[in-house]
């Protein structure tokens, strides 16, 4: 390849000429000349050494992906060269999860290669969908937190920020869900079974991580051997992150663990041949699998080591890069911003201190100042069971030096607390980084707040509760550190790519500026009164629904009626998200129909999807209930033409991309005060669905932006939920609300479980016997009232689409570009570094 060759402008460029493309991306021609077809054909044939005619869909996918990678690779190199040369302040996003999904279509979209791709598809006679479906989802995350990280790196690249994501290269991502007799079952997600064309291993940039102990596999489980220090290698695998327009190609660097190739000769010569090799095995098992639980972290030793591994590899890499260009350690916060995605990477506090104290030889005060100025922390949940704490004993065994540092941070911090609040030992106990005797644990959220200059929540209400409840004492000490950064989602994947029907109509109406400046959707507001545009939006929704129904039939053998209302709730299954409240609504509607098969009513399709943590039994019972509800309703001759219930297995990014554009109704019905933000709410909004929901998370801000009248809000507010904790009694609703009672009686009469009597007893326990902690029954009646309004409006086709347009017009605020602009200006103090 020759970067300095004469620009392709010298010869008249053919639109299909690959050098024309490369020139367009500022790379100059490469020596290989030929068309993009030739590029593709070369990969097809030479990568597999087979005749092109003999290749299957998988080979064709790989050849297409590699061709796209060829187009971006020079630009990718040049992006890094530019950063090295310009030495801007770099942004590092540390996250245990990146829920990426597929990359082929997204990268083509962001590089604006669609015309080339379309021509290739035609000339090579390819089936684009079949090809795209060959790519497995990169499911390296559980839900909202991981998907947010993926949206953020897209926005940062699009905004030309010198940013990099750091995560783990799990061999197995989030488990694959299937349904057996209505129950969730799990299968491992072997997403790397085939070579992944998007990843580039960088063995020369490996880092060595030293640990205070060793690991062994004993009897099939991974055990810690204290007192025998060991080390493990972190091998980086880089993935390109193409910004929209293809100007900046940033990097997502994922670490894989590997055993040192010199294995333990001492153990070997002592005759421990097997255990020395087993040690090697266990080092590699460090990055084997993503933890599939998004709430409880207790008692998972391997998870603790994974978190340290991410931090240690990433900081070593960051510091190495920083030191290549900057002689002076004091420049660190001017050149580096590190964002911690939840507390999962909060070992960065003691690790950066260790580097500055022990490796750089700085004094405590300077090291502490640099650490705080460099790090920033985002909180993603208020659920007490999801707030991480780690046993002090594990620090002792694995990270003794880090423990020393944490205890010294705590000693100094508590001195400060005592100086500011003399005599207030209660407060000292509450804020201490160490949770009291005898089973002492380190509170990672406290560590992250104390060790950084910024703590933010992810929606206004969440940030407010964080400041006034969960982290109140710390916010009182450091009020200037706390802020809100309301989440957002990338409009490239979630509108432009996922919903071509709607995206095309928006562009036809207001031009394509919205793709990188979503606030321009405001221009649609007056078009709510334009009959032509209303028709266009209606037609787009109809198209998306038809195409989803078509896919569902082909993929799952399930038929749904595109003329019914598609009413969706898709997210992790959790009591606080209240899928059970939705199911109760359906039971009430079912009961109403059984009593009075009403003539006038739009048919409705209720779509559910989501995974339950494998050990979360009640969440699995909820899935079972939805499936049994579906089986009963869909077979009932009286109601089945009015109501249909579908539980879609294996919810993932790719399924969301299909389902969200097709939905008319978005259910966002968490118990108020529990959903930090939510992000699917935003995706539904920008895809022309109306929201029925509680005043929780970012839904509150959506209503503010679109006008409360344009959503269907119901239920207790967060304040009312907190205020009724003392006296709330679900039995009151059972005793006084006939529809609530009838619905519960029907469930507990085994109407939906004729052959499995008693299987839903855990639901009775949760909803009645144990007090209904998430207050389903408190909100059921107002949910049904809002639902009645919603169905009423649907009958008025124009009224409905007007509200859809008002939502669409107001959804600009929920672009992750806006969120990232706020992080960059207010937390990172970093700006773009355009690649020439
Ligand atoms: C906790 C744990 C603990 C143990 C093992 C694995 C694991 C994985 C994740 C978590 C924390 C999950 C917190 C989370 O996902 N929060 C969600 O963050 C979204 C993005 O900010 C937000 O929209 C959702 O409301 C919030 O629930």
From TrEMBL:
Cross-referenced InterPro entries: Glycg_phsphrylas, Glyco_trans_35, Pyridoxal_P_attach_site
One annotated GO molecular function: pyridoxal phosphate binding
N6-(pyridoxal phosphate)lysine: residues bearing it: 683
PROSITE patterns, per database record: PHOSPHORYLASE
Enzyme class label: transferase
Listed EC numbers: 2.4.1.1
Pfam families attached to this UniProt entry: Phosphorylase
Gene Ontology CC annotations of this record: cytoplasm
Role description: Allosteric enzyme that catalyzes the rate-limiting step in glycogen catabolism, the phosphorolytic cleavage of glycogen to produce glucose-1-phosphate, and plays a central role in maintaining cellular and organismal glucose homeostasis. Phosphorylase is an important allosteric enzyme in carbohydrate metabolism. Enzymes from different sources differ in their regulatory mechanisms and in their natural substrates. However, all known phosphorylases share catalytic and structural properties.
This protein's name: Alpha-1,4 glucan phosphorylase
Organism: Rhodopila globiformis (Rhodopseudomonas globiformis)
């Amino acid at each position: 390849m020759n970067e300095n060759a004469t620009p392709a402008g010298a010869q008249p460029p053919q639109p299909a000429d690959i050098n024309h493309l490369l020139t367009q991306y500022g790379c100059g021609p490469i020596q290989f000349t030929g068309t993009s077809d030739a590029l593709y054909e070369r990969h097809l044939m030479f990568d597999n050494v087979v005749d092109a005619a003999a290749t299957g869909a998988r080979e064709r996918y790989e050849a297409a992906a590699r061709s796209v990678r060829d187009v971006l690779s020079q630009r990718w190199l040049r992006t890094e060269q530019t950063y090295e040369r310009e030495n801007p302040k770099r942004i590092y996003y540390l996250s245990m999860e990146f829920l990426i999904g597929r990359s082929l279509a997204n990268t083509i979209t962001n590089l604006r290669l669609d015309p080339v791709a379309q021509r290739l598809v035609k000339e090579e006679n390819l089936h684009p969908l079949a090809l795209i479906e060959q790519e497995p989802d990169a499911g390296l995350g559980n839900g909202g937190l991981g998907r947010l990280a993926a949206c953020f790196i897209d926005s940062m690249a699009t905004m030309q920020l010198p940013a990099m994501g750091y995560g783990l290269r799990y061999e197995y991502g989030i488990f694959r869900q299937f349904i057996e007799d209505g129950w969730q079952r799990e299968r491992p997600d072997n997403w790397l079974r085939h070579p992944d064309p998007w990843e580039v291993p960088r063995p020369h940039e490996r880092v060595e991580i030293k640990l205070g102990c060793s690991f062994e596999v004993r009897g099939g489980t991974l055990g810690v051997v204290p007192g025998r220090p060991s080390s493990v290698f972190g091998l980086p695998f880089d993935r390109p992150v193409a910004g929209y327009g293809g100007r900046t190609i940033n990097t997502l660097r994922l670490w894989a663990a590997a055993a040192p190739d010199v294995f333990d000769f001492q153990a070997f010569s002592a005759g421990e041949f097997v255990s020395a090799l087993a040690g090697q095995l266990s080092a590699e098992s460090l990055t084997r699998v993503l933890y599939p639980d998004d709430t409880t972290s207790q008692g998972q030793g391997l998870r603790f080591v994974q978190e340290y591994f991410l931090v240690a590899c990433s900081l070593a890499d960051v510091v190495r890069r920083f030191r290549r260009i900057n002689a002076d350690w004091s420049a660190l916060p001017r050149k580096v911003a590190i964002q911690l995605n939840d507390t999962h990477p909060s070992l960065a506090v003691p690790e950066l201190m260790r580097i500055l104290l022990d490796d750089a030889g700085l004094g405590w005060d300077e090291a502490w100042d640099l650490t705080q100025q460099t790090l920033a922390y985002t909180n993603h949940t208020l659920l007490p069971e999801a707030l991480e704490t780690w046993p002090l004993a594990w620090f002792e065994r694995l990270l003794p030096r880090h423990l020393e540092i944490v205890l010294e941070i705590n000693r100094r911090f508590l001195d400060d607390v005592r100086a500011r609040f003399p005599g207030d030992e209660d407060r000292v106990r509450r804020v201490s980084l160490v949770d009291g005797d005898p089973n002492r644990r380190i509170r990672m959220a406290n560590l992250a707040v104390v060790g950084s200059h910024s703590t933010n929540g992810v929606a206004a209400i969440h940030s407010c509760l964080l400041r006034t409840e969960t982290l109140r004492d710390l916010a009182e000490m450091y009020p200037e550190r706390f802020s809100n950064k309301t989440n957002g989602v990338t409009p490239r994947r979630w509108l432009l790519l996922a919903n071509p029907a709607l995206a095309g109509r928006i562009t036809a109406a207001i031009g394509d500026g919205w793709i990188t400046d979503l606030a321009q959707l405001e221009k649609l507001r007056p078009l709510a009164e334009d009959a032509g545009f209303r028709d266009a939006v209606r037609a787009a929704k109809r198209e998306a629904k038809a195409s989803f129904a078509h896919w569902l039939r082909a993929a799952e053998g399930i038929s749904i009626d595109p003329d019914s209302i598609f009413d969706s709730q898709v997210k992790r299954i959790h009591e606080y998200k209240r899928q059970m409240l939705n199911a109760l609504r359906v039971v009430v509607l079912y009961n109403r129909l059984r009593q009075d098969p009403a003539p006038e009513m739009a048919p409705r399709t209720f779509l559910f999807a989501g995974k339950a943590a494998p050990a979360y039994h009640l969440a699995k019972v909820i899935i079972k209930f939805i499936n049994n509800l579906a089986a009963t309703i869909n077979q009932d001759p009286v109601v089945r033409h009015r109501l249909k219930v579908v539980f879609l297995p294996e919810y993932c990014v790719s399924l969301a991309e299909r389902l969200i554009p097709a939905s008319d109704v978005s259910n966002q019905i968490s118990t108020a005060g529990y959903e930090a933000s939510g992000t699917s709410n935003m995706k539904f909004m920008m895809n022309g669905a109306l929201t029925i929901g509680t005043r929780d998370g970012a839904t509150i801000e959506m209503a503010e932006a679109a006008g409360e009248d344009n959503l269907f809000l119901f239920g207790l507010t967060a304040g009312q939920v907190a205020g009724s904790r003392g006296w709330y009694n679900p039995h009151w609703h059972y005793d006084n609300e006939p529809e609530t009672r009838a619905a519960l009686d029907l469930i507990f009469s085994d109407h939906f479980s004729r052959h499995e009597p008693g299987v839903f007893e855990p639901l009775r326990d949760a909803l009645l016997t144990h007090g209904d902690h998430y207050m389903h029954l408190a909100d059921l009646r107002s949910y049904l009232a809002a639902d009645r309004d919603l169905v009423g409006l649907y009958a008025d086709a124009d009224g409905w689409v007007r509200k859809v347009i008002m939502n669409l017009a107001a959804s600009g605020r929920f672009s992750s570009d806006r969120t990232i602009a706020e992080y960059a200006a207010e937390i990172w103090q970093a700006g773009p570094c355009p690649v020439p």
